[in-house]
Each structure stands twice: as C-alpha cells, then as structure tokens.
Amino acid sequence: MKKQLHLVAAVLLWLFGTAHADAQYKYKELYQNLPFEMPEVKAPVFPDKNVNLKDFGAVGDGRTLCTEAFGKAINALAEQGGGHLIVPTGVWFTGPIVLKSNIDLHLEKGAVILFSPDVDLYPLVETVFEGLDTRRCQSPISGRNLENVAITGEGAIDGNGDYWRPLKKGKVTESQWKKAISRGGVFKRPDYWFPYPETLKGDTISNMNVPQNLKTEEEWHSVRHFLRPVMVSLIECKNVWLQGVTFQNSPAWNLHPLMCENVLIEDVLVRNPSYSQNGDGLDLESCKNALIVNSTFDVGDDGICLKSGKDEDGRRRARVCENVVVDGCTVFKGHGGFVVGSEMSGGVRNISVSNCKFLGTDVGLRFKSKRGRGGVVENIWINNISMIDIPTEPVTFNLYYGGKSAVEVLESGEKVPAKVEPMPVDETTPCFRNIHISNVTCTNARRALFFNGIPEMPIKNITLENINIISEIGAEFIYSEDINLKNVNITPKKGEKMTTRFCKNIKEN
Fold first, then answer.
1. What residues pair up with 442 in beta bridges, in sequence order?
2. How far is CA 120 from CA 51, 117, 137, 221, 277, in A?
3. C-alpha torsion sign, points 69, 283, 134, 188
C-alpha cells in the first residue's frame, strides 16, 4: 500500500511539474531566435478564489440588466484579494463592466456577455482614441492602472455595435439595410445612415472621428452618441491576459490595450461585420512586451494593428510600442492583416511577426503614416506569411495616408508619380527603416508591392527575401532607398515586374 501511495505521489508530482513547465515555457521557442532582447511574457497568476455571477443577483435570460451584479461580484472578489469571476452559461445583458486588479473575468462554455445598446448607460470619460487625447463614451469593458487582469474562457462578448455605428448602403445586403434603417435614425445622404441625430452632428464637426474644439459639457453631450467607445479598453495596466474568448460586434475598435506592459493575447477570436466602420480587431498602442499568438481576426478594418499616438499628442506622450511578437495568427476580411500606423508618432520598434495567414484582407502587410506625424518605425522582422485574394498589395508602405500623393500625366495619358518637393526634417517627419520581410507567398493580388515614400525621409533599408507574388501588375517603388531584393519572384499578368521613381540603391540578387 505504501509503495502505491509513493507511486501516486510521484505521478502527481510529475504531472504538476509537467503542467507547470508547460504553462511557464509554452511559448519559449518564440524567444529563442528573436533578433532583439525581450523578456518572456507569461499569463498572470490569480488567487484560487471563485465567485459566480449568479450569486450576486444576475439573471442570464438576455433581457435582465446585470450591470449591478457584475459590479457587486467584482467588488466582492477584489475585497478578498482577487480571483476568478465565473460567468456561467447564459446570455448576460449588461451595461459597462469595470475591471479591477487581480481579477480574471472567466466565461464558461456557452456564456455570452451582451452589452446594452442604451447610450445613457455609457457616460463620457477621458480617454484616447485614434491616438488623440479626447473624450468618448465609457467602454463596455474597461480597466485603468491595474495589475494582473484577464478575460478568459470559452464564451463570447458582444458589444451590440450595430446600434452605435453608421452604415453605408453599398456595404450591406438589401435586407441588412432595411433592418438597420427600421430602427429610425437619420441620413447624411440617401445611402449613408446614422443611428441618431447626435451621431450625424458629431460626424459633421469631426476630423477623423475625433471632435475638435468642444469645450463645454453641453457641447460634448450634444454629440455623445457619435463618441463610440472601443469595446475593451485597458489603459496603463500591467500583466494583461486575453485568452480563448470570442470578442465581437464592437461599437468602434474591438480590443485596445493602451500603454500596457506584459500583454498576452492567445487563442482569441475577434469578429466584426465586414461593413463595420472603425471596426479594428486589435489596436496595441504604446505597449511594451506583448505576445499575440494563435488568434483569429475577421473584422471591418485593420486586423492586428500597432500604434503609438498621433501627431503632437503622441509625441508628447512619447510612449514607444516595442517588444511585440505576433505568431500563428489568421486574418480574414479587414483593411490590413498586420498593420503599423497610421498613429505612430511615439515610435514602433522591435517587432517579430511570423507564421501568419492573411485570407482576403485588403492589404497584407500595411505600413502607413503621413507628414506631420513624426515617429520612427524600425527593427521589424516578418517571416513565413501566406496570403491569398488581396485586393490591393501584399506589402504596402504609404506615407500619404488619408491623402493623395502627387501624380503627373504623360502625353500618352498615363499617370505616373510626380516629383515631390522635400520638406525640412524635424520631429514631425515620419521614418520607416530597418524592416526585414522574408518567406512570403501571395497569390491573386492586384499590385505586387507598393512603396510610396517622401523625399526628405525615404523608406529606407528594407530587405525582401524569398518572396513569391502572383499579381495583376508588378511592384512600384517611389522615394525608397537601400532596398535589397533577394530571390523576389513577381509574376504580373500585365506590365513590368517592377518600376521605380526617385529611388536610390535598389538591389536585386
């Protein structure tokens, strides 16, 4: 009997040790060959305490408002030092949820958190959107200055974003259009619908979705419905873990970690309708030490996007987005698969992207900015990327985001890039350099590559190695320097393989 007990103890010890080792070193191989130093990002550990949402008066019938129950459960758990808030099977209809330190919001299989579309439940708060300091409606899920915070499990979180977002008729079916406009609302034009008059008013006075020069409370509240929140807002948090959950139908961006450190995002599904405006999947902004692995994005805007603030606000904040590893992710519909910018005024550096699939994104690898933004994007390594059905380019660098670059018309009628007068180089000059892209295969793209730089700071020191692209037309390089092409195979259906204008030192090996 004693031998049997020793054997059981030995087995348990081995199992515990193995499980612990797996948990601790699950992604160790991702760090072995990184070209930059980065500490391992691990999931936070929570106290072994559970509370069940139902025990605080919540009813999962999809219509009973559970906002108070969520608040009570989180407070009770926080008073005990933290632990796991269990959300069981059911549809839990609620207003905003505010997380606290040392709490894991855990959705069991079959659990759905559905946020109310009642705008009155979401007060205006100070925050950051599109890289600018501003005010927005409170996010459905938020946390600020937290340590050890998680959303995990096998359930789903739905932001009811259809009730917040404007809609363009050309992006939806006739039945979807009729369903949306049946809720009332107003029209900017016959094919452009807004859910509230306040939403339309906000649109008319805003620049890129962020109203300017609003001073009084009355002015802010007059456009409150326009100020759509990101669904998950985590600001200046440390040890963030998102795992296993489906995040969908957000009012604006879906996941927005801002100025966070040690962020682990694994095995999540992030969804938004393809017609959703500003429906980004993940916007990792000014974060340090982040791991995004084995996750799927199918959204109405950029899929996986790195940012660091916009223009003067971003430069003043001066928080680089750095030490980020993306591996094993899939992006379906969206404006870009992996994206940097356009809000990159604080800089982006030390990034690794590997083993990803982009299936029908507008652009595959998308780098975007403009004059006036500032910021340096550098030291990025991208490897093993597969793409199909890309309506524009597999790889794009565009330093004219939100505008048009100069063109001239030849006697033949052909439009070609025109010479651009350089501007003085200062803190507002954006810079993209030292980027290495290898082992990329893309079939069915429109244009193979598009590098569109500016004369005072050309796109510089880019290596493209082992690239295979089948496209309608070839690659185009404008104001680019020190571009090294190694075993780059472009097969255009028409025209030249590659054209260059105002470039220096483009090497083909």
1. 387, 469
2. 29, 9, 9, 11, 22
3. negative
Using CB atoms within 10 Å of the CB of residue 182, give its burial: 0 to 12 exposed, 13 to 18 middle, 19+ buried: exposed
d(CA 77, CA 58): 16
| Residues contacting 120, CB < 8 A, separation 6+ | none
CA distance 113 to 107: 8
Residues 53 and 187 in one domain: no
Q: What residues have CB less than 8 Å from 460, skipping those under 6 apart?
A: 431, 432, 433, 434, 480, 481, 482
- 320-376 pLDDT, tens digit each: 999 999 999 999 988 999 999 999 999 999 999 999 999 999 999 999 999 999 999
Q: Chain centroid to CA 131: how far?
A: 13
Q: Would you call 65 exposed, middle or buried from its count of C-beta atoms within 10 A (0-12, 13-18, 19+)? A: middle
211 and 312 in a single domain? The answer is no
Could you tell me if 393 and 428 lie in one domain? yes
**Overall domain count for the chain:** 3
Same domain for 318 and 335? yes
Same domain, yes or no: 107 and 153: yes
> Model's pTM, two decimal places?
0.93
Compute the residue count for the chain: 509
